[in-house]
From TrEMBL:
The keyword Flavoprotein applies. Signal peptide: none annotated. It comes from Halarchaeum nitratireducens. InterPro entries: FAD/NAD-bd_sf, FAD/NAD-binding_dom, Ferredoxin-NADP_redctase_2. This is FAD/NAD(P)-binding domain-containing protein. It holds the Pfam family Pyr_redox_2. The lineage of its organism: Archaea, Methanobacteriati, Methanobacteriota, Stenosarchaea group, Halobacteria. Residues 9-117 form the FAD/NAD(P)-binding domain.
Amino acid sequence: MSHPEDAPSVIVVGGGVAGLNAALYTARAGFETTVVNAGESILRRNGHLENVPGFPGGVNPRTFLDLLDEQVADAGAARVTGEVTTLDELDGQFVAETDEAVYEGDYAIAATKSNPGYLDAFDLALDRQGSKTYVDVDERGRTGVDGLYVAGRLAAEPHQTTVVAGHGAKVGLTVVEDSEVPYYHDWVAPEGYFTGRGREVPPGVEEIDEAEREARERDSMERMRAAFAERHPDEPTMHPSVADDE
Ligand SMILES: Cc1cc2nc3c(=O)[nH]c(=O)nc-3n(C[C@H](O)[C@H](O)[C@H](O)COP(=O)(O)OP(=O)(O)OC[C@H]3O[C@@H](n4cnc5c(N)ncnc54)[C@H](O)[C@@H]3O)c2cc1C
């Protein structure tokens, strides 16, 4: 998926469950989206993921994350590796710095689960609970700094994959709704659903004909067969204190 030259841009800091889902929605809405991720999602520690919708027997969480990453790449988002050490705002642009690169965006979404030290340039309201620090946000992930949002566990969402995925999606949609990009819903409808009633296809919505539906379904079937043909090669990541004992 390509984006128009003048598309708004968004930096997503953290490419775990919430960050990737936020990126999925901003990229699909036409935003030039860059996910900057260091390390790995805490979900890689899971033994077998049994409470995400649509997987009655559960799913290997590493397969789930790989598929999510593939989906975000297909939507047109760039995914780069790097630990963001500072996020700041200069001349109306958010600037994220890693040791090796600088990324700029009209919007920024922080989705790093914890350690919000890279956000120190902003006077954000923080909620400290024991060893954890969360960022106070409104019900749509807005921080009070125009254009800066927080998604997932870092926004004190419950420590569950489906919840932080949904929150990432919600925050991604909030960025779109707060922008100038015309938008209705991120929907794919069968041909005629709107036009058959004499209505325009709303922005963000696609109507697809029978041939296209079949092509997409067959592609999805093949990709799922390939993804689930073998067990995932990676073992769960252990808690660092367990790994240290070994
Ligand atoms: C052992 C275990 C089992 C679990 N099992 C389940 C389960 O069965 N069901 C369930 O629903 N949930 C489960 N969870 C919880 C689930 O994994 C989390 O709730 C979810 O991953 C949180 O998503 P997030 O996007 O907020 O954080 P993460 O998915 O951890 O993503 C944060 C990302 O940001 C990156 N990052 C951090 N700092 C920076 C930085 N400065 N710059 C760039 N990138 C950065 C991190 O490396 C990571 O990739 C489990 C968790 C654990 C530990």
